[in-house]
Amino acid sequence: MPSFWQTCCGDITGSGHPGSAHGARLSRMIGRLHGTVIDCAAPQKLASFYEALLGMQRVQDEPGWVVIGDGPDRPGLAFAQVEDYRPPTWPAGDRPQYRHFDVRVEDLDVAEAAVVELGATRLSGGGDRFRVFADPVGHPFCLVAF
Length: 146
What we know:
This protein has 3 domains: 1-30, no CATH class; 32-85, Signal recognition particle alu RNA binding heterodimer, srp9/1 (2-Layer Sandwich), CATH 3.30.720; 87-146, 2,3-Dihydroxybiphenyl 1,2-Dioxygenase, domain 1. 20% of the residues lie in helices and 29% in strands. The protein has 3 helices and 8 strands. The strands form 2 sheets. The chain has a 4-stranded mixed β-sheet, covered by helices on one side. A 4-stranded mixed β-sheet has the order 5-8-7-6, covered by helices on one side. Strand 2 (57-62) and strand 3 (65-69) form a beta hairpin.
């Protein structure tokens, strides 16, 4: 009996054999990424932080909802107002993080100074090639250099 994916999308492995990990791909796209939504208490303020960090522009701005991106017809980063928002705890705790951004930079020291000036806070953890921060409302993100 064919699996859901075989019925819906055909051979998703690209090998002709169900379950093959080599050359995995969908033969039909199910959908396109429209954006990533971040919960927060003040969408306009947090969007401004990420606009400066990522060099993006505001493409939608409404009460309780802001979207930034590199163009209005491309996937964006949205910020949604949530009542009684409480930031995740780092690195573990009763409110774990469910995602974080890795932001690639040329120079960790220069980038650290810049994000701290924008309102980020350095968190524990990191290494020679990455450093961990919290955005102004507590979402973790990393600066990475390769």
